[in-house]
Design goal:
It is built from 14 helices and twelve strands. It is an alpha/beta fold. It starts with 24 loop residues before the first strand and ends in a 22-residue tail after the last helix. The protein binds iron/sulfur cluster (SF4) (2 copies). The site of one iron/sulfur cluster has 12 residues, from helix 11, helix 12 and helix 13.
């Protein structure tokens, strides 16, 4: 059996986080923060207040400026155009058909366009499925597990559950042969049910590409990244660690090479000497920007706040804004702001202190700025370390031997390596 990091076609930005090493990615929000649902934990709905007079529909001149500048910045061989929201399907199929047609007129010969979209899937019909299939979209679907867990926080504006609609949309896309990537938020309701969630997605829905996103929601009235309290919906640090380690064990026993979990690919990348495959584990920030419906460009999808507004692409080129001193400062702050506990942490090369938006707790010795999820990440990276080392060793050799697959399928990675060296399997580099 052969397993290659990043070999699967979902290694593209399709959600909050990048899942592929890229020089610059932009999440465009053509409908702004507007959504047909009212999920309890959504961090983006409050952003509507930033644009009190907004029409929340990307105008043609903004669309043209965006696609022109994005395509100028990426010479190829492939350019990813990522749509997100709010709920981007609210703009209707025809908006995206126009955008795609425009991109095709602007793109350099020989450059491939890759479209991604993140959707709640509740508005999908045959027209959408046909568009996604024709244009080979990678579609991220937000789903939090089986019906009872999904419906705990994900409901429409009338408070009605959404699971059945999401599932119908998902099955429609699968029937049309569309590539689908599940985005699962891990929260207070599902954190104690990792296997239930994972097996539902894998076995009941037949999904092979999963992204796990922790809900860390600050308890404040602004919706911005401020304050030190979290809402009761947020995942707990220990629950996040247990969720990851439990699914990791299930995955390494049964699904290596057949199910792709972006978090596990990301944890493997530094073992192979590869660049971070998710921005949260990169040394610096700054190359994953967010574009609002009116052309306003922000430092990051998680910092769509007045203090992180870089400018408007109808007035200044996207490339200039991305290279601006303000964005460079934003990017460098991630590494510069590491607390001493992170700097001496054995998991630093994998974790990098994770996302700055979650750094609002205090270390045991009183230093402010430790990541809220630290306990969970330390648990996960420590737990996964021997298995990831084993996998990295095998990948460097060009593939997984059968005996290594047997080992992954349940044996203790601290047991002797099957190569006969006498080294522990998880640490053998022969
Ligand atoms: S702040 Fe940095 S790590 Fe967090 S989502 Fe944005 S780019 Fe990624
Ligand atoms: S596990 Fe905790 S201490 Fe270690 S780098 Fe991550 S956040 Fe910092």
């Amino acid at each position: 059996m052969r397993v290659e990091l990043g070999a699967h076609p979902k290694d593209r930005p399709s959600s909050t986080f990048r899942t592929s090493p890229r020089p610059l990615s932009v999440l465009a929000k053509p409908s702004g923060a507007i959504c047909n649902l009212d999920c309890d934990y959504c961090f983006f709905l409050s952003k509507e207040q930033l644009y009190p007079d907004g029409r929340f529909r990307m105008a043609e001149e903004v669309l043209e400026a965006y696609l022109t500048q994005l395509l100028e910045l990426h010479p190829g061989p492939e350019v990813t155009i990522s749509w997100q929201g709010g709920e981007p399907t609210l703009l209707g199929v025809d908006f995206y058909r126009r955008a795609i047609a425009l991109a095709k007129t602007l793109v350099r010969p020989g450059v491939r366009l890759q479209h991604t979209i993140q959707t709640n899937a509740t508005l999908l019909d045959d027209r959408w499925a046909a568009l996604f299939a024709e244009e080979q979209f990678l579609v991220g679907i937000s789903i939090d597990g089986p019906r009872d867990l999904h419906d705990r926080y994900r409901h429409d504006k009338a408070g009605r559950p959404t699971y059945d609609k999401v599932r119908a949309g998902l099955e429609l896309l699968i029937a049309h042969g569309v590539d689908v990537n599940a985005l699962v938020t891990v929260n207070a309701a599902n954190e104690a049910h990792p296997l239930e969630v994972y097996r539902h997605l894998r076995d009941d829905l037949g999904l092979e590409y999963l992204q796990l996103i922790p809900i860390v929601e600050r308890a404040n009235a602004t919706g911005f990244q401020e304050g030190t309290e979290v809402t009761e919906r947020s995942v707990s640090p220990s629950g996040w660690g247990r969720f990851l380690t439990t699914i990791f064990d299930e995955w390494r026993r049964h699904d290596v090479g057949s199910v792709f979990v972006s978090m596990f690919d990301a944890a493997l990348a530094p073992k192979l000497g590869l660049p971070a495959t998710m921005c949260i584990f990169a040394e610096t920030c700054g190359d994953a920007l967010a574009l609002e419906h009116n052309g306003d460009l922000y430092s990051c999808d998680h910092f769509v706040e007045p203090g992180y507004l870089l400018g408007n692409i109808t007035e200044q080129h996207l490339g200039e804004l991305a290279a601006s001193p303000a964005q460079q400062r934003f990017g460098a702050a991630k590494a510069e702001g590491l607390v001493a506990q992170c700097r001496r942490c054995p998991a630093l090369a994998s974790c990098r202190g994770e996302c700055p938006k979650n750094r609002f707790t205090t270390t045991a010795d009183g230093e402010f700025g430790l990541n809220y999820l630290c306990e969970g990440y330390l648990n996960f990276f420590t737990h996964a370390e021997p298995v990831l080392e084993l996998m990295a060793t095998q990948l460097r050799r060009g593939g997984f031997a059968d005996e290594v697959m047997d080992l992954l399928n349940g044996a203790d990675p601290a047991a002797p390596c099957p190569c006969g060296s006498g080294n522990p399997a998880g640490r053998c580099h022969r």
